[in-house]
């Protein structure tokens, strides 16, 4: 029962959303094949079983491409026009996937380019309209968990600061924050505080107010929490969760400023039990790197030529840039990139790169935006110094300072650095120590939850970063 209350209600909207989209995509395909049958009488009629197989293939291809452009990002914030643009790009990708790969491998399933065009047009209209209705009229409200935060001090205020936007609270609503003895002064608004005798009436308050989840976020725990009431809540199916786990689950990051040693030692994850991260991991990275080199070498050749023509022939500077970075187990290695800055960019010493850095060349501006400057790092992958997915490697000068100021920063070196990572998907461009701390929260989440499925998800979602110039 407890498991149902914890996860079931928060996933009802997700399941409804996915089932609805699959249904719309299948219907788009079936309508298109039906129109094909009745309008092109000179062609053989497509049997129902073939039409059903095509509908399933069409739906699968579109949903995979939708994932790659961020349409299944729970915190996607776009206007109607932005959603429509992503839907159009999704359908263009799915057409290329089906026509270029699937139907070439299984030509017996190919109906006609006309069928695919009509199915895509119907899907474009239906998906755009459905998403506008679903997201912008807040249908997901029906599945929100009602949460009571036990705490109104410094730790609890982190929830208030990080989850102010509606997009951050898609699956829950905070009923209020309850002050617990020992809480330090914080900035939680008076209107969000709830006043009752938690030592005597916590269980009754939970029942009377339909609370689904209790978040333990008090500043002092020893002998402060009403254990008997918490036990009664737990036995009645009310979820009781610690603030660290709550933030991790809802934001996809680990709050490093709340971590305590016992959580790291006794908690799940943060180990090396996932054995695919050894020899198999290198083999997968090797194959992917070789395939990507075969596809991108013309882009790399043109990029090198443009860098040379802009300033390389005048200054004699290389089109490539080698720089020491900290890798697996803290060992240094040379990362290889296309040079995107002026040759004398660091004449005054190392400094953080910024979003509008005046050291960036004209060519560099574009290759950085679309991550073309990172392509030479495929050679680092071939050498085994990097993987495709992992925390981005940082410079030793910055690492030495960050390890002094940010707790657990060195833990990001427990896995190989990557071309892309969870932090690059979830956090915008950052160029300060504060940004490094925010990205560490996502890096630790990745290290704790890393798996082949998560890696594949990150790789697919990286397509969105490249297409829309997001992240870093």
Automatic annotation (TrEMBL):
A GO cellular component annotation in the UniProt record: membrane
Record keywords: Membrane, Transferase, Transmembrane, Transmembrane helix
Protein name: Sugar transferase
GO molecular function, one term: phosphotransferase activity, for other substituted phosphate groups
Domain Bacterial sugar transferase: 284-467
A Pfam family: Bac_transf
Compartments it resides in: Membrane
The family this protein is said to belong to: Belongs to the bacterial sugar transferase family.
PANTHER family: COLANIC BIOSYNTHESIS UDP-GLUCOSE LIPID CARRIER TRANSFERASE (PTHR30576), UNDECAPRENYL-PHOSPHATE N-ACETYLGALACTOSAMINYL 1-PHOSPHATE TRANSFERASE-RELATED (PTHR30576:SF0)
Membrane topology: Multi-pass membrane protein
Organism: Arsukibacterium ikkense
């Amino acid at each position: 029962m407890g498991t149902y209350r914890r996860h079931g209600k928060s996933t009802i909207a997700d399941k409804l959303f996915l089932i609805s989209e699959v249904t719309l995509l299948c219907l788009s395909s079936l309508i298109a094949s039906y129109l094909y049958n009745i309008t092109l009488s000179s062609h053989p009629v497509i049997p129902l079983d073939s039409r059903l197989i095509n509908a399933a293939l069409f739906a699968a291809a579109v949903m995979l491409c939708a994932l790659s452009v961020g349409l299944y990002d729970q915190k996607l914030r776009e206007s109607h026009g932005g959603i429509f643009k992503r839907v159009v790009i999704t359908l263009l990708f799915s057409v290329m996937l089906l026509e270029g790969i699937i139907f070439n491998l299984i030509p017996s399933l190919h109906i006609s380019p006309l069928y695919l065009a009509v199915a895509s047009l119907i899907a474009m209209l239906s998906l755009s309209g459905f998403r506008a209705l679903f997201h912008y009229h807040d249908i997901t409200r029906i599945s929100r968990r009602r949460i009571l935060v036990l705490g109104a001090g410094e730790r609890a205020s982190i929830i208030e600061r990080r989850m102010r936007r509606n997009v951050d609270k898609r699956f829950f609503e905070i009923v209020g924050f309850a002050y617990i003895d020992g809480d330090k002064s914080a900035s939680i608004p008076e209107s969000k505080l709830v006043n009752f005798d938690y030592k005597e009436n916590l269980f009754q308050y939970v029942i009377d107010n339909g609370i689904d989840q209790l978040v333990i976020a008090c500043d002092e725990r020893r002998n402060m929490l009403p254990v008997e009431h918490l036990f009664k809540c737990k036995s009645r199916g009310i979820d009781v969760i610690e603030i660290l786990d709550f933030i991790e689950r809802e934001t996809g990051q680990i709050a490093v400023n709340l971590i305590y040693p016992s959580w790291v030692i006794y908690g799940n994850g943060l180990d090396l039990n996932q054995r695919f991260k050894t020899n198999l991991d290198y083999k997968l990275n090797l194959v992917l790197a070789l395939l990507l080199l075969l596809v991108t070498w013309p882009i790399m050749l043109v990029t090198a030529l443009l860098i040379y023509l802009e300033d390389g022939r005048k200054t004699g500077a290389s089109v490539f840039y080698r720089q020491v970075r900290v890798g697996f187990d803290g060992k240094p290695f040379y990362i290889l990139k296309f040079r995107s800055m002026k040759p004398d960019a660091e004449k005054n010493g190392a400094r953080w790169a910024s979003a509008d850095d005046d050291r960036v060349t004209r060519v560099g501006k574009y290759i950085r935006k679309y991550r073309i400057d990172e392509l030479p790092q495929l050679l680092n992958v071939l050498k085994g110094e990097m993987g495709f997915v992992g925390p981005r490697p940082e410079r030793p000068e910055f690492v030495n300072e960050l390890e002094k100021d940010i707790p657990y920063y060195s833990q990001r070196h427990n896995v190989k650095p990557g071309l892309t990572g969870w932090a690059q998907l979830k956090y915008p461009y950052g160029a300060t120590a504060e940004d490094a701390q925010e990205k560490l929260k996502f890096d630790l989440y990745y290290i704790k939850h890393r798996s082949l499925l998560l890696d594949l998800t990150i790789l697919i979602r990286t397509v969105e970063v490249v297409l829309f110039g997001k992240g870093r």
